[in-house]
């Protein structure tokens, strides 16, 4: 059911290139668009695995000048994004290409808008603060996780107080998303597991969100279906092109969802954990996710039935309450199969930090379907402990 009296907005830029080897065609595409100088933004892992080689060759083949910034950090800090933007300004680039996980894509977004907007990243923390159109941003994900290639959001950490900021504006949606399943083939097991789980959490939290609407529901249900079907075979063997391709499509669809609905408590808590402990985003959200799902079950029983169906669970003869319990069970089982840590105490998280992190998380609970208090958040941390 949608809240028709409030209506909804849905922003997207859908320029997608999806195929094995798509990354090798980018040079030609950029040439057609008239670009002359690019900054390639990536992280040391991508560089080491040589995932950028096809992209670089395609730029060289088309005589597009380029420079590489490869110092992207996991949970990128504002000061390092600003460093990349400074380099981009000196080089006078006309296009920025992010290749990597969400951190690389979000850093590229930061570079894109800082080139045309004055000041620092923190001046743009929040919704619709970016005034001028960024330079074109090309996004090439190497994980099936954040969906950042189609989102209007960049998550960047404030280096001073370790809080994750969120720059949100349709202006920073990448101009082109290049989805190449071959780039996922060498993903380390842990990265594949954490990022894939993040994509599933996006689809489910967006589907349950108070901001959910006809468009986001359409994308999210398909995302839940694709991700549920392919997450295990993909994590078992990321070079399985069919699984990787479907995971990329699933994570992109979920990205379209969250970009327009916001996320729920798993992300509110996960972001606080990520800021305090510099934990991988997918892990931080996963570890609290089944508990959040248990907490939210009373708020949207019908939607839990839809989720169970999209996940391919057999629900014949079960009550809505039992179906919701089955969804939670399946999430725990999936985390077991993917070898994702299920307890905060095994991740060296200290109970003393729960209250402080809850204070941070409380500002992000608005889209969550069940009304959430500070005490609820502390309890959810305790549940995950
Ligand atoms: Fe996420």
Question: What's this entry about, in short?
Answer:
It is built from 14 helices and nine strands. With 385 residues, it is α/β, with parallel strands linked by helices. It folds into two domains: 16-184, Rossmann fold (3-Layer(aba) Sandwich); 189-384, Dehydroquinate synthase-like - alpha domain (Dehydroquinate synthase-like, alpha domain), CATH 1.20.1090.10.
Walk me through the structure.
The chain is built from 14 helices and nine strands. It is an alpha/beta fold and about 375 residues long. Helix content is about 50%, strand content about 10%. The chain has two domains: about 15-185, Rossmann fold (3-Layer(aba) Sandwich), CATH 3.40.50; about 190-385, Dehydroquinate synthase-like - alpha domain (Dehydroquinate synthase-like, alpha domain, Up-down Bundle). The mean pLDDT is about 95. A six-stranded parallel beta sheet has the order 1-9-6-4-2-3, sandwiched between helices. The protein has a three-stranded mixed beta sheet with strand order 5-8-7. The radius of gyration is 20 Å and the shape is globular. It starts with 15 loop residues before the first strand and ends with a helix. The site of fe (ii) ion (FE2) has 6 residues, from α6 and α10. Fe (ii) ion (FE2) binds next to α6 and α10.
